[in-house]
Amino acid sequence: MSTENEGTAVPPVPSAPPVPVESPAASPQPPAPEAGAPLPPPPSTPPHAPDHQEQPAYGAPDRQEPAPAYGAPAPQAPAPQAPASAPRASAPQSPGPQDPGPYGHSSPSDASWPPPPPATPSYADGGAGAGPAGGSGAGAGSGWGTTYQQPAPKPGGRRGGLVAAVLVAALVAGGLGGGIGYTLARNDDSGSTTVSASDTGASQVKRDPNSIAGVAARALPSTVTIEAESSNGQGGTGTGFVFDKQGHIVTNNHVVADAVDGGKLTATFPNGRKYDAEIVGHAQGYDVAVIKLKNPPSDLEPLTLGDSDKVAVGDETIAIGAPFGLSNTVTTGIISAKNRPVASSDSSGDSKASYMSALQTDASINPGNSGGPLLDSRGAVIGINSAIQSTGGALGGSGQSGSIGLGFAIPINQAKYVAQQLIKTGKPVYAKIGASVSLQDSTNGAKITDQGVSGSAAVESGGPADKAGLKPGDVITKLDDRVIDSGPTLIGEIWTHKPGDKVTITYERGGKEHTVEVTLGSRVGDSG
Description:
Blueprint: E1 2-5, H1 159-176, E2 182-187, E3 192-197, H2 199-203, H3 212-219, E4 223-229, E5 235-242, E6 248-251, H4 253-256, E7 264-268, E8 274-283, E9 288-293, E10 316-321, E11 329-345, E12 354-361, E13 373-375, E14 381-388, E15 407-411, H5 412-425, E16 429-432, E17 446-447, H6 464-467, E18 475-479, E19 482-483, H7 487-494, E20 502-509, E21 512-519, E22 521-524
């Protein structure tokens, strides 16, 4: 397969109903008249007495006693009984524990209370109020949940009653939430009452060192965001990771390609430390490069390298990078496939392809992730994020394509060998069989061409293929136990080996299948 390198306002919260403020205490009642004494005429009922009280807005029940919160019995304060002939006074009331009003907001009582019902917020989908994951909200036509109901009057209520009720609810919620403490905070300026997470509770959270959070915390300090700029000012952003304590950083070749000929390189750590860097060596065919920090710090911690040969499909993966310039981004997924043949390029006119037998992952990889580490569940590097299959654009190129769950990483066993060669000699070393093969898409195998590059012989005289008896027109179908369906697949598989390795090649000639052992040769550098 061929792929490319990576290289409406929210409506305001409706006003919450106010909490009744303290009212004057009921007038003291005159003593009951003695027996036989004439009774005074009853006074006229005040306009605000309960017998003449208007029905609460929004359908609140008249004097319905709210149920206690969380099933706990609410203490009842018996109202003093006055003689039937005594004047009746309005007692200040307080909402019950389950009716503090939306968001627990309070404000002074005024003549305009109750307010009109809150307007339904406007959404892009026409007001359906869809919740997360497409779930519906409170229902069509409802604003921010259920409509507000006026709290029923309760004798002896004060503002402190609301605070106590909310505090009880908070304590119960804290107990259900695993012991996380909550504190009650009140904004005196706005009169609102809020519940905030306690710092003490947050500091008590202990994460497993092998959790995603634990792995990310250890790995992030050893990753860098790389900025490469060419001599004419063009460039891009990628990622790299610390390879050793000497300041070597491993990344993709296409990340640093702009700075190869006299350009500028910088590497920035998550703590903000920024260093100039220089290219030690780069391998276009492998798409691997090594840069070195100038004046590196003494506290560098290299990432642990894993064993990509032992990776299994379904293993968890963690990718770190700077997608679209968003440094220190962590995404997760699994190994979707192994030994995926990938031929990639950065879509530039003079770009040459890179070939790999890649680890495929569905961890989100986007432009800017290039060169970053692909980690296993323990935090060991198993690959270098290098390419994606997307619906358009290119990773590391000018397009703004994004992840569709098909990302590819260079196996770390191969990348480690290449990086060590680049640090040692500054040049890559490639294994080869000494034969030119067709790069056309095919499903039948890798066919040895009739003629090589620039008119050269298709089978190098005295080379590995020649010694093994391979000829132009032969179709290679297997390398060891790997099925070969095309020329790029064969190249990618050969490059997972080192010069001098012995491999078994299965090929077809004249309709018959043959098998031969080949000792791989070597090629130094990207040319030839």
